[in-house]
Design a protein that fits this description.
Elements (H helix, E strand, L loop, with lengths): L1 H23 L11 H11 L1 H11 L12 H9 L1 H27 L6 H21 L5 H25 L3 H4 L11 H12 L4 H15 L3 H14 L4 H25 L3 H5 L7 H13 L1 H9 L5 H9 L4 H25 L9 H14 L1
Helix pairs in contact: 2-5, 3-5, 4-5, 6-7, 6-10, 9-11, 10-11, 10-12, 11-12, 11-18, 12-16, 12-17, 14-15, 14-16, 15-17
Length: 364
């Protein structure tokens, strides 16, 4: 009788404390994954990063390094100071993220904002490692690490999506049997996740990265449509964020082309055989900067536009301004058509129309 009375008195106090922890983001039960997952995340790069950082700082190639990169790549880094600097920055950033994961594991600390930032970092690193393997810059083990990064990014996305939108009443009682959410609840959680203020900027950053990978076009359309439909009043902000990310990627392409005018041709050979090249060349040659603006509004790759405008000696600021305004207009039109349920959204690709229709059906 005494123990049951004590528990009844402690119950409201415990619930109040749990609710306070939930508001701070520190409640253990809001984590969808077991905590040891973040220990694995810390060990993934946490062991290799310090060893590679020491190797880069010593600037002495080792035989073990040849298991990960070709000999010419290793010797290139040895003889290039700028490559050593970027390698140092990469490995120190991996150490920093690993320490963050370790802190989450040891102290059950809040995952916001570290984990959403880490998701973007893992997606970028994963895709770039896979691309480097395809270009024979690294061997298979780093590519496996890249695939692992992409998988872990998806798992982390699942982890931060559910807890952020978990009802307070369910999260405040860790010893209660909380009802399991079905597929409908999962869709609701994903839509609420896409409604976060920082979500459009994450998608925009991925759009900038897609200038180099060219494999994210369809997933990015789905991500963009989900952000627009999850938060329609901020659809113009989402459009601008996506345009800013794309323009940032184009700016990097312009810089790389200035440094090496063969870079784009060597990295994206298929683009030059695509009909987009002829359309872009005709538009720029006939209409100049206005042609560049029109191409930026269209759902096409922008690598030909960078090459043609640079060869035509167009001002780099004018080119970037055309891309920013053109892409902003493009994404605004897509957002307006998606919100209105207009079938003409299919002009920007079947993926955009299918994504909008699927979200509309799920809302119903």
């Amino acid at each position: 009788h005494v123990s049951s009375t004590t528990r009844s008195r402690q119950g409201p106090l415990r619930d109040h404390r749990n609710q306070q922890k939930l508001e701070k983001g520190d409640l253990d039960c809001t984590m969808a994954l077991p905590h040891w997952f973040y220990l694995l995340a810390a060990l993934q790069w946490g062991i290799l990063a310090p060893l590679n950082l020491v190797k880069v700082l010593r600037n002495k190639p080792t035989k073990m390094a040849y298991l990960f990169v070709p000999e010419e790549t290793e010797m290139c880094q040895k003889d290039c100071a700028i490559a050593q600097m970027w390698a140092t920055l990469f490995w120190t950033s991996q150490i920093a993220f690993s320490l963050g994961y370790l802190h989450i594991y040891l102290y059950r600390s809040a995952r916001i904002p570290l984990v959403p930032i880490a998701i973007v970092q893992k997606v970028m690193v994963g895709l770039l490692l896979i691309k480097a393997n395809m270009n024979e810059v690294v061997h298979s083990p780093p590519a496996v690490g890249g695939v692992t990064d992409l998988v872990m990014a998806c798992i982390m996305l699942f982890d931060v999506t559910l807890p952020i939108t978990m009802p307070v009443a369910a999260a405040a009682a860790p010893d209660a049997d909380a009802p399991r959410q079905g597929h409908g609840g999962m869709v609701k959680y994903l839509l609420q996740f896409a409604a976060k203020p920082w979500y459009p900027w994450v998608v925009g950053a991925l759009s900038g990265l897609n200038n180099f990978t060219m494999v994210l076009s369809v997933p990015l359309v789905v991500l963009y449509m989900s952000g627009v439909l999850a938060n329609p009043p901020r659809r113009r902000v989402a459009a601008f964020a996506n345009a800013v990310g794309t323009t940032a990627g184009v700016a990097v392409l312009v810089y790389l082309f200035i440094q090496n005018d063969e870079y784009i041709k060597e990295s994206f050979p298929s683009v030059f055989d695509h009909p987009t090249w002829a359309k872009t060349e005709w538009a720029v040659s006939h209409y100049g900067w206005f042609g560049a603006f029109l191409i930026s509004v269209m759902p096409v790759f922008l690598q030909p536009l960078v090459v043609i405008c640079c060869l035509a000696k167009m001002s780099k600021l004018v080119l970037l301004g055309c891309v920013l305004t053109g892409r902003t207009l493009k994404y605004i039109i897509m957002a307006e058509l998606a919100v209105a349920g207009d079938k003409r959204l299919g002009f920007f690709g079947s993926a955009a129309l299918n994504a909008a229709e699927s979200f509309e059906q799920k809302d119903k």
